């Protein structure tokens, strides 16, 4: 009888222990789930937006390496080099060897030339330290036609940021480097006149010669493109230079 009572006590203890163990496992599982829930719903949760697609476009005016030359502000020319122009940062990149390239110190560079195989003439880029607007003194203008009235082209790459957040976004999921091109007429006294590619803008830029320009344009096709202006500028350079203001 005593042995039977002892068996009942041991069996009860085992049942109690098993129940306790099961309760511990269940409670541990609930605690873990609660912790996960708190992480998801609380401040520790970080949402990731995978819609962003990176950057499109290139910062370089011409993506490939081109033979070219550099003239320093000291007027000392450098020998032929392999170059790229970063039109976003306004920096010139030099290829030193097949695996190494460096940015040059633009504070020392007055002008550079790129031999673009798609063009019939080398492309000359010049910095004008006497530009009236200080912001323009760090720019490198492509000189399309030199002379008392120089036709200049300013080419830049600007970063257009992605826009896909919010109800009124453009749903553009990438940053993009886009071309920005402006034209100018530079007079002999250093003035930079912004120029749109039409006859009205040209006469407005050079009011002292507007009557002569209008008379000449009656004999020619309309001015609409860069090529039209390049063809017209040699005639313009037969006119006397504008007096300094």
Largest sheet: 11 strands, mixed
Helical region count?
Answer: 4
Amino- and carboxy-terminal Cα gap: 127 Å
Name the poorly predicted regions: 2-27
Count the strands? 11
Radius of gyration (Å): 36 Å
> Strand-residue fraction?
25-35%
Question: What is the N-to-C order of secondary-structure elements (H for helix, E for strand)?
Answer: HEEEEEEEEEEEHHH
Mean pLDDT: 81
Helix content range of the residues, please? 25-40%
Shape: globular
Overall SS class: alpha+beta
List the keywords.
245 residues; alpha+beta; 11-stranded mixed sheet; 11 strands; disordered N terminus
Kindly describe this structure.
- By secondary structure, the protein is an alpha+beta fold.
- The chain contains four helices and eleven strands; from the N terminus they run αβββββββββββααα.
- Strands 1, 2, 3, 4, 5, 6, 7, 8, 9, 10 and 11 form an eleven-stranded mixed beta sheet that branches.
- The radius of gyration is 36 Å and the shape is globular.
- The termini are far apart.
- The model is unreliable at 2-27 (pLDDT under 50).
What is the compact description of this entry?
Helices cover 27% and strands 29% of the residues. With 245 residues, the chain is an alpha+beta fold.
How are the SSEs ordered, and which strands pair?
Elements: H1 2-41, E1 55-56, E2 66-72, E3 81-86, E4 91-97, E5 100-103, E6 109-114, E7 123-126, E8 141-145, E9 149-160, E10 175-187, E11 192-195, H2 199-205, H3 210-217, H4 226-236
Parallel strand pairs: 1-10
Antiparallel strand pairs: 2-3, 2-6, 3-4, 4-5, 6-7, 7-8, 8-9, 9-10, 10-11
Helix pairs in contact: 2-3
């Amino acid at each position: 009888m005593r042995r039977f009572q002892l068996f009942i006590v041991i069996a009860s203890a085992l049942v109690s222990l098993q129940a306790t163990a099961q309760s511990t496992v269940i409670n541990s599982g609930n605690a873990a789930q609660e912790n996960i829930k708190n992480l998801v719903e609380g401040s520790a949760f970080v949402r990731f937006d995978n819609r962003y697609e990176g950057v499109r476009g290139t910062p370089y005016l011409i993506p490939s390496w081109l033979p070219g030359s550099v003239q320093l502000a000291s007027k000392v020319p450098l020998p032929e080099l392999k170059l790229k122009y970063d039109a976003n940062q306004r920096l010139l990149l030099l290829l030193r060897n097949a695996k190494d390239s460096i940015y040059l110190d633009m504070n020392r560079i007055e002008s550079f030339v790129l031999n673009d195989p798609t063009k019939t003439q080398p492309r000359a880029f010049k910095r004008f330290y006497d530009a009236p607007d200080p912001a323009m003194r760090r720019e490198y203008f492509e000189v399309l036609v030199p002379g008392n009235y120089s036709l200049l082209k300013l080419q830049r790459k600007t970063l257009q940021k992605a826009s896909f957040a919010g109800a009124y976004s453009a749903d553009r999921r990438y940053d993009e480097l886009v071309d920005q091109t402006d034209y100018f007429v530079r007079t002999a006294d250093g003035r930079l006149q912004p120029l749109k590619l039409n006859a009205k803008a040209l006469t407005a830029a050079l009011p002292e010669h507007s009557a002569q320009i209008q008379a000449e344009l009656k004999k020619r096709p309309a001015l609409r493109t860069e090529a039209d202006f390049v063809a017209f500028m040699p005639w313009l350079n037969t006119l006397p230079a504008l007096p300094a203001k």
